[in-house]
Write a structure and sequence with these properties.
The chain is mostly helical. Helix content is 57%, strand content 0%. The protein is built from 9 helices and no strands. The longest helix has 22 residues. It is globular, with a radius of gyration of 19 Å. The chain starts with 24 loop residues before the first helix and ends in an 8-residue tail after the last helix.
Amino acid sequence: MEPNGPGTEGQAGRPSHEPVFNLPPVVLAIIGLCAAIFLLQAYVLTPDQNLDLIRYGAFIPVIYTGKYGFDIWAFTSPFTYTLLHGSFLHVAVNMVWLAAFGSPLANRFGARRFAVFFMVTGLASAFFFCAIHPFTQAPLVGASGSISGMMGAAARFAFQIDRSSGKAAFAGAPLPFRLVLRSRAVVTFLAVWMVINLITGLVGFVPGNEDQIAWEAHIGGFLAGFFGLRFFDRPEKPMS
């Protein structure tokens, strides 16, 4: 049975509520894959096997600057790095943000378009990072770049979610750039998001932890989602 809209009642006069756990299958699939890979790394793989997984699955910028030869992994790692994470906190935080921002976009785009969006924004994130740090040998891992792309896309709707149909989905046409930048909610969010990225990039995700946040990658993903939203959005149906 379809959930009723806000302010309506279900059968027997009882208020209808949207399910608490109502994530699109494509979002659940990405969360499940990231979680499964992390658990595999943490409890199954040996240290040498883990090292090989990072070597072939993570994005390492220096490989693309001509110092080393290309192999098949050079073409796959710009996508697979989004599925790897460095710690339990890293994967947990990313999956929460993925559920929050990915669900409404997946409902709007559809599964296939959303999967392509996830990969393309991850790709943009990786190569934006590479453009700033072309010779670093430190591996880049995590879905943060793709999630930042979702935030960029969400900004085009001023983060307004329409739940009237029973599904969390951004409604209507994306706002023009000039209107987005005039929105107090969007500008405030972007300012806070940028400050958090800069601080975590300088001091790390957790103070005292050597792992650093690749804030440059976040910006690359955000820009790809913000400016490239229309390439992934479903075409509007003509009104009859």
